[in-house]
Amino acid sequence: MKISIITASLNSAATIADCIASVNAQTHPEIEHIVMDGGSTDGTLDVIDRRDNRIACWRSGPDDGFYDALNIGISLAAGDVVGILNADDLYADERVIADVVRAFEEEGSDACYGDLVYVHARETDHIIRYWVSGQYRPGSFRSRGWMPPHPTFFVRRELYERCGLFDTRFRIAADYELMLRLLEKHGVSTCYVPRVLVRMRTGGVSNGSLRGMARKSWEDFRAWQVNRLRPSLLTLAMKNFRKVPQFFRRYRADPPVSQPSRVGSREKAGSSQPRVAMPPFGVPAVGRAE
Fold first, then answer.
1. Domain ranges in the chain?
2. Is residue 36 a contact partner of residue 73, using CB atoms and an 8 Å limit?
3. Which residues face 6 on adjacent strands?
4. β-bridge pairing 31-37 and 55-60
5. With 0-12 CB in 10 A as exposed, 13-18 as middle and 19+ as buried, what is 197?
6. Are the C-beta atoms of residues 255 and 212 closer than 8 Å to each other?
7. What pLDDT shows up at residue 204?
8. Block mean pLDDT (10 aa), the chain, length 290
């Protein structure tokens, strides 16, 4: 199974080397890393153009923003499955993609996702928040304010062709809108890889200021409207409240398990019986959140 990883960058010289190195280190052999740069002037292109990189394709030039760059990258992808890795972020260890591939092969699902830790911008071993996704069930976006961490969300490429790319009308929440559209509107099947897949540096437009948080909440609400879905009165409040335990949850990094085991559960739209998860592999989640 071939995996396409899309990275969008703009003046990311300080961090993109870590991002690329984490892709280079993956044990899965069939990886296509595509980097879409918005016209960096800080040395980012020198990092991207190193010959020892695992980059299959990169371009640099003007675009219409972050999500437009991702859409261009997806249009160039040839992999069976597409994942997004931000230029500031890195995979948790060298077996992340191998475990994602195993999840797709064993579960036969349309998408999969896992857990994420927020780390210090300069010290990526310093854990600040621990996002345990937990199992998805149809209706979770509405009833629990649930969403998976987007950098851990892998999707079969054919779904982008069938259900559409990122909606670039959204400047902050196009990832939320896309996952809402796929999982709640189209009811695609998904499975949960119960381990940390990505280390995300703290920062970002949506969490950096009250104004950014307010705009993010407005775009989240608009995501329901454009998909003709109806949130509950508490949906968006619960979505924000779910972040609080992430600051107190303890993260314990155990080495990934090499023997395959059943991953997560998958519920197709209309299914009343979820598949029961077998003991998880990889990094365990302490205090799993449902």
1. 3-247
2. yes
3. 34, 84
4. parallel
5. buried
6. no
7. 58
8. 97 96 97 97 94 88 95 97 97 98 96 96 92 92 91 98 97 96 96 97 67 86 95 77 61 48 37 34 33
Q: Which residue has the tokens 């003007």?
A: 62
Residues 6+ apart with CB under 8 A from 271: none
Taking the whole predicted model, whether its pTM rises above 0.85 is answered as: no
> Over the range 56-68, which residues count as b (16 or more CB within 10 Å of their CB) and which as e?
bebebeebebbbb
What pairing do the DSSP bridges indicate for beta strands 154-156 and 190-201? unpaired
Neighbours of 220 (CB within 10 A): 24
Tokens of 117: 């830790």
CATH number of 3-247: 3.90.550.10
CA dist., res. 5 & res. 239, Å (int): 27
Identify which of 36, 32, 34, 40 has the alpha carbon closest to the alpha carbon of residue 14.
40
**Calculated CA dihedral for residues 274, 280, 282, 286, nearest 10 degrees:** 100
Instruction: For residues 244 and 101, give the distance between their C-alpha atoms in angstroms, rounded to a whole number.
Output: 31
For residue 231, which amino acid is it? P
End-to-end Cα separation, the chain, in angstroms: 30
